[in-house]
Specification:
The structure holds two protein chains of two kinds. By secondary structure, chain A is α+β, with helices and mostly antiparallel strands. Chain A has helices at 2-16, 19-27, 32-44, 56-63, 67-79, 103-127, 134-170, 174-186, 190-198, 230-248, 286-302, 304-308, 318-330, 342-362, 364-387, 413-424, 441-471, 486-499, 519-539, 554-559, 561-564; strands at 52-54, 83-88, 91-96, 201-210, 216-221, 258-261, 264-270, 274-282, 393-400, 403-410, 431-438, 475-476, 505-512, 547-549, 571-578. In chain A, helix 1 (2-16) crosses helix 3. The longest helix of chain A is centred in the first third of the chain and has 37 residues, at 134-170. The model of chain A is unreliable at 1-16, 129-144 and 336-342 (pLDDT under 50). Chain B has helices at residues 17-26, 67-73, 89-93, 95-105, 127-134, 153-165; strands at 2-11, 39-48, 51-60, 79-85, 111-116, 142-144. Chain B starts with a strand and ends with a helix.
Amino acid sequence: MRKEIDIRALKRIDELDNPYLRHFVRRHNLDDREALALGVLMEQTDHMRLAIRTSYSMIARDVGVSTSEAYRLVQALHRRRILESRTDGELIRIAFYPIKETVDEIRLAYKNARRLDVVEGDLRTIKGRDYLPRADLFDDIYPLMGSLIARKMSEALRSLAHYIDKRLEAATSLRLWRYRVRSRISGVPAGELMLRDTLPFIVEELFIIEKKSGILMAHHSRKAEGEVDRDLVSGMLTAIRDFVKTSFKKKREDEVDEIAYGEARILIRAEPYFYAAFVVTGNPDIEFNLEMDRFALELHRANRSLVRSFNGDMDSLEPLRAPVRGFVERFSTLPSEEREGGASLRSLKRAGAVVAVLLICLLGLAIYHSWNDARIRKLTIARLAGTLPVHMYDVELKVGRGVVTATGMASSEDIVRRLGDALASTPGVKGVDNRVLVVDIERISRFRGEMETIRKRMDAVLLAQTREELEKIVIRFPINVAELGKEQDFLVKRIYEIIRHHPAAHLDVVAFADKTGSFEINKSLAERRVAAVRAGLIARGIEPSRVHPFPFDPALIESDPRMAAHLDERGIMIFARMAEEE
Amino acid sequence: MLIQKKICLLGDFAVGKTSLIRRFVYNEFSESYLTTIGVHITKKEILLGGDRLVLIIWDLAGNDGFQKTAASYLAGAAGAIFVGDLSRSETMSGIPSQMRMFEESNPGSPGVIVFNKTDLLPGPVNPMQTSREAGIPEGAPVFLTSCKTGENVGSVFDSLAGLILGR
């Protein structure tokens, strides 16, 4: 029977999930039956809000105990001043004493207690020498990691130098000339054009929509129309735009200028009477933003009176359609599909061929060398392909007078050596200049991981030291004083000196008070002292977001061994933690 | 000539705005009720005296909480339909304020009044008397409709289209 009651009691308490109940159970160390009776009475009093008239037999029935046991339980709760029971005729009147704390405060107190348990656990771990002191850690790891770091740094710098060389070589190549020609024709910087080729984008659709009504004035799509009617799409776009503007705008001129979905983006440019919505996939460059601005502005300038007086007559909008179609067509092919500049590039190639023929005519010897070098190059490429797996190297071969220069990357020293051997053994090759570098991606990534682990351990060690040093400091205050005096200010400065070297550490500022004076007075003093210390730290340059004042809670302080020695003192202690240890 | 115009449907929740559109645009009716969230846009082309008039119909959510947003949705509308539910008299008394809100956004744009759900009433209804009781200003055309039977639904939109085009 006893067992049955216990199970029911626990189940009921769990179901109630009532922080007040948990609070009483822990504070007064209630047994299961008392807790159950308390839970039932809390429920019946609508969470301690009402006074009820009941009888011991009714309580006994609800709790599942005998009437005499119900009497004992109610009296036990009465003695602990949790509730007041009074005889009222044949019944008893039960009411709860008001409690000062709110549910949130109680929740916070237990949360803080749990947090302090964690901190205490950390301290025990650190004191148990699980971590090495910082100096020892350096001594231990530097011989292992130092040389590795130096070697990897050197390799990274060599790779960077090679990359820069390659770019400089490319500066005289035909490929860059192609960009220069396109740049001259289109007016777009060559760098932008290169970037556009690397990160292509496409204008899928363009909507010109009347600003107020959302009526679609002009539209063009690079593909066949989608399933949804474009008139409805433009209406919904306008509704979304209006909704966002009404709900979130801060300033009158704020506009929705982008809606993103998946890989596509709707970029919006608003003019006085219409707005243009460009549906774009890929990564539009900065130049395209200017193109959109220019297009929308020009469309407005050229058709101002038409769009201003638009009355729903769709035929009158004919002048808008050609520019809209033109814009979409201009930006609706991938760079590889060759846009403007292609014809000029072909002309350049033809001119190059003519010059080559002239050179052939004039310099027979040069022709021979050129032919021979090309032949050797083909042979070396074929030799490499037949000798080494292609995914292990990425090299460029240049042949000049029979000497092969290899530049690029390979996955290991062995591949570099074998690559050199394969080139040297190709028929016709007079010499090999092997400039191929080893780039081991896997090792670099592993190295990064190791560095991250070390960084985390370093942070942990630093934090442990900071915690230890901080816990030695107790900022004591004279009675009834909450302002920082000379002594307190000196200690705040010392705390600042400790933590300024550990920017990741957050600080919990906890106040304790002696037993004299009422709770309210002590609480007020404690909070003012916490605020004064916090302000002192912030004034010295610690970010406010790193300094967290703790609510005053004597029960919490009594349960914390770090502060137990200061129960009869008035002061502040500071505990360090990492930001994520909330 | 092809003409496009935006019109708005206003009214308290569950008066039958969406049903009115469904009956007009798709000739459908459903007994089940779905709340319109924010705005729902549909399109219907009608022929009027040789011209093709495309109505872009904005069905606004019938919820007072969205009033600020709804006001922005009204911008640029050429006309409006104000809908009330004959079986819930309180929905009619909201119409005058909806008319004022629309007039503020679109001065001079025409509107028509619709008293919907005639099929739910046992006897005939006097539209003029109902209008007066609801405090609706005189002058605007009033229609008694039933989306369930389709009664008068087409006339509502035809009448508004005529008013918009001044015919």
